[in-house]
Specification:
Elements (H helix, E strand, L loop, with lengths): L8 H11 L4 H7 L6 H14 L8 H12 L8 H20 L10 H10 L6 H21 L6 H13 L3 H20 L23 H9 L8 H9 L3
Length: 239
């Protein structure tokens, strides 16, 4: 039986933030156009209108979160408008994880973490602050389940987002935590049978279609303080 869990306040705030920045027209224009389109529009319009966060995943939720995650914003005539829509669907995806839905039924954790990071609104400090809080709380929640092999990707997201905020001490803490988390997964007999190969972080999961995006994000990291763990992460993720 599914057990509902209380959501971290940051997740609720991210949902409310992203919901306030989309319109019903966005849902009509950007919902995936496969045969499920009418049902997708109906469900997501209801979420948008009501402000109610779904508690349990179902096909019309996970399918939209997944298909929207794979889309390239540049393929749309208004890329930023599409990103606003995807920020909303991704926020729902994170909320589902926080309520005890496993990532395989929503969107693989490393894919969802990547969606959050690449859709950061660089012009908005509020969005950055919300994503930093959500990355940290999601890392904590997924780690506590002891079944989520990809939870260190949210630790890596914490590091990336700290650097976007020019918070070098925060980045250093996240880098040290990432080294610890990655090693802990490999040492954990409940998880390490799921590990794919020995590549740092990238080898933790068979869900590897977005490894190139993570490598690109890693190449954008800096180490102005010559922090040891930061340097080790940058070198390990260099591709």
């Amino acid at each position: 039986m599914h057990v509902f869990q209380a959501m971290h306040a940051s997740v609720i705030r991210l949902f409310e933030y992203t919901r306030s920045r989309v319109t019903e027209r966005d849902i009509l224009d950007f919902s995936p156009g496969d045969p499920g389109y009418p049902d997708y529009v109906k469900m997501w319009t209801e979420i948008w209108r009501s402000g109610g966060i779904p508690q349990e995943t179902e096909f019309d939720l996970s399918e939209v979160i997944g298909l929207t995650g794979w889309a390239r914003p540049e393929a749309w005539g208004e890329p930023e408008r599409f990103r606003r829509y995807r920020r909303f669907t991704s926020a729902v995806g994170v909320a589902l994880l926080h309520q005890g839905n496993d990532s395989d039924s929503v969107r693989p954790a490393n894919y969802l973490a990547r969606d959050l990071v690449v859709d950061l609104d660089e012009r908005c400090g509020e969005h950055l602050a919300l994503l930093r809080a959500v990355a940290e709380s999601t890392r904590t929640v997924l780690n506590a389940t002891n079944v989520e092999v990809e939870f260190p990707y949210f630790t890596f997201a914490m590091m990336i987002l700290a650097q976007r905020a020019l918070d070098w001490s925060g980045s250093e803490r996240a880098a040290a935590q990432l080294m610890e988390d990655e090693g802990a997964v490999r040492a954990n007999t409940a998880l390490n049978w799921l590990v794919c190969d020995d590549r740092f972080l990238l080898g933790l999961s068979v869900h590897g279609q977005l490894r190139g995006d993570w490598i690109s994000l890693a190449r954008g990291l800096r180490n102005p303080t010559r922090h040891e763990e930061t340097q080790l992460v940058m070198e390990a993720m260099s591709g």
